[in-house]
Each structure stands twice: as structure tokens, then as C-alpha cells.
TrEMBL record:
<dbReference type="InterPro" id="IPR002123">
    <property type="entry name" value="Plipid/glycerol_acylTrfase"/>
</dbReference>
<feature type="transmembrane region" description="Helical">
    <location>
        <begin position="46"/>
        <end position="66"/>
    </location>
</feature>
<comment type="pathway">
    <text>Phospholipid metabolism; CDP-diacylglycerol biosynthesis; CDP-diacylglycerol from sn-glycerol 3-phosphate: step 2/3.</text>
</comment>
<keyword id="KW-0472">Membrane</keyword>
<feature type="transmembrane region" description="Helical">
    <location>
        <begin position="12"/>
        <end position="34"/>
    </location>
</feature>
<dbReference type="GO" id="GO:0003841">
    <property type="term" value="F:1-acylglycerol-3-phosphate O-acyltransferase activity"/>
</dbReference>
<keyword id="KW-1208">Phospholipid metabolism</keyword>
<dbReference type="InterPro" id="IPR004552">
    <property type="entry name" value="AGP_acyltrans"/>
</dbReference>
<dbReference type="GO" id="GO:0016020">
    <property type="term" value="C:membrane"/>
</dbReference>
<dbReference type="GO" id="GO:0006654">
    <property type="term" value="P:phosphatidic acid biosynthetic process"/>
</dbReference>
<keyword id="KW-0012">Acyltransferase</keyword>
<comment type="pathway">
    <text>Lipid metabolism.</text>
</comment>
<keyword id="KW-0594">Phospholipid biosynthesis</keyword>
<dbReference type="Pfam" id="PF01553">
    <property type="entry name" value="Acyltransferase"/>
</dbReference>
<keyword id="KW-1133">Transmembrane helix</keyword>
<keyword id="KW-0444">Lipid biosynthesis</keyword>
<keyword id="KW-0443">Lipid metabolism</keyword>
Length: 259
């Protein structure tokens, strides 16, 4: 039975890249204009959030369901974080925040044809193996924060291994939030690994649940508090992942009981 599914999964997976490529090509004239200056970034963000992300998510049969413990305030800056196990995390994060934000991401993504060209123009790239590059992130982030934007960092740094439940968090997001005394917005992405993992012949359409947790304030904290803050954020996201998993197991056991 699994062998019969593989051709359909293969076509569906290829469709993801077709959607990404076609939407970027079709929108590229607008992207070129809106990435030509930082003053157009709000318009660029609106376009990628409401058009590009929607086309890919709904075009793949993914349906975001977002639950919020606290609302993001318009015009306020935050550091947005979430667990990171799928390429669809980018699109789902765009759906989770109406406030414009800038991604901090690894420089290797700039090598992706077409996508990488615009990625370099709008994202803050970092080489995690280069101390100077990591330091420069703070300078570029400050400029974006001064413009009233938020910053998004996936503190795991990307986890292609599906056996990893929740990897250790890196310091960057927490150092940044403390340095500029802005709140951290922890989010838990429940289904992205199951829906569209890094394993090519896997996945399925369906709901993508997001839990936006109560924000973590950093007012009065110093760099010495970063470890405790990091562990607090990781614990919040980890507990929610366990809760989501327990819900799924309960649903499975319930459905098998009534068979």
C-alpha cells in the first residue's frame, strides 16, 4: 500500500517547488520594486504574507489554525521564535504575525536559485561559524527594529533529523531580545514535521496548528539572564509539543475504539 502512495507523494512534493518558483517569478517585478528600498518593506511583507505564503500553504492543502494566548500589538517590535523542522515554517510564521518582521537565517539559503536572490535583499543572513557575521546581525537587527519591525529567529537553527523532538536552543534570539529590551513571542508549530518534513517521500495535506504563547518580557534583564530565558522558552514550546502529541494519541485511540 505504501508503494502505491509514493508516486502521488512525489508529484505533490514536486508541486511545492513548482508553486514556490512560479509565485516568485510571477511576483518578481513587484518584489524587485519593493525590495529596492527599506521604506517599501511593509508593502513587501504584506505581499509575501497575503499572497506568496497563502498560495503555497493552501495550494499544498495546508490549513493554518492559530490559537493565541496574547495578541501581537500593531506597531510594536518583538523577537518571534518557534520550533523549526520544515521548510513550511517560513510560510506559517508569516501567517502567525500580521506585524511586519524580518527573518534572521543562515546564509546558505541565498544559494537557492531565484528565491536566494530576494532572500539576500530582505533577510538578515548569518554565518553561524563566523564570529564577525554573528556580531553584525545585531547591527542589522537594530536598524530593522529602529524602523518599527520585529525579528524572527528559529533558535534550533533548523533540524532535518526527524528523530529530534526539540533541539537545544541557541543564544542569539535571547541575546537580541535582552539587548533591545523587547518581548519574546514563543510559538509552537504542531504539525509541520508531520505535514512536510525534510524526508522527501513523506507528508500529507491537512491542518497546521500554531500556538502563540504568552510573551516573555525582557525589561530589566541582562545578558547574564539569557540562559534562564532560553530554557524558559524551550520548556514552554516543549510542553506544548507534548500536549499536541498527547491529543493526537488520544484521538487515535478513540477512533480505534469505535471501529
Amino acid at each position: 500500500m505504501k508503494l502505491l502512495k509514493y508516486p502521488f507523494i512525489l508529484i505533490w512534493r514536486i508541486w511545492f517547488y513548482v508553486l514556490m518558483l512560479c509565485t516568485i517569478i510571477l511576483l518578481s517585478p513587484l518584489f524587485l520594486i519593493l525590495t529596492s528600498s527599506d521604506r517599501y518593506y511593509h508593502q513587501f511583507f504584506w505581499l509575501v504574507r497575503n499572497v506568496w505564503a497563502n498560495v503555497i500553504l493552501y495550494g499544498m492543502g495546508f490549513y493554518p489554525v492559530i490559537e493565541r494566548e496574547q495578541e501581537i500589538e500593531r506597531g510594536k517590535s518583538y523577537v518571534l521564535i518557534a520550533n523549526h523542522t520544515s521548510m513550511t515554517d517560513i510560510m506559517l510564521m508569516l501567517k502567525a504575525s500580521r506585524n511586519p518582521f524580518v527573518f534572521v537565517g543562515k546564509k546558505e539559503l541565498a544559494r537557492i536559485p531565484i528565491f536566494g536572490f530576494f532572500y539576500k535583499r530582505v533577510c538578515i543572513m548569518v554565518d553561524r561559524n563566523n564570529i564577525k557575521s554573528r556580531t553584525e546581525v545585531y547591527e542589522r537587527a537594530k536598524k530593522r527594529l529602529d524602523d518599527g519591525l520585529s525579528i524572527c529567529i528559529f533558535p534550533e537553527g533548523g533540524v532535518p533529523d526527524e528523530e529530534v523532538f526539540l533541539d537545544e536552543f541557541k543564544d542569539g534570539a535571547f541575546r537580541l531580545a535582552i539587548a533591545y529590551q523587547i518581548p519574546i513571542v514563543p510559538m509552537t508549530f504542531a504539525d509541520n514535521k508531520k505535514r512536510f518534513s525534510y524526508t522527501f517521500l513523506s507528508g500529507s495535506p491537512g491542518i497546521m496548528r500554531v500556538k502563540v504563547h504568552t510573551f516573555l518580557e525582557t525589561t530589566g534583564l541582562t545578558v547574564a539572564d539569557r540562559v534562564a530565558l532560553k530554557e524558559q522558552a524551550r520548556e514552554i514550546i516543549g510542553e506544548q509539543l507534548h500536549a499536541f502529541r498527547a491529543e493526537e494519541e488520544q484521538e487515535v485511540s478513540g477512533s480505534s475504539f469505535f471501529r
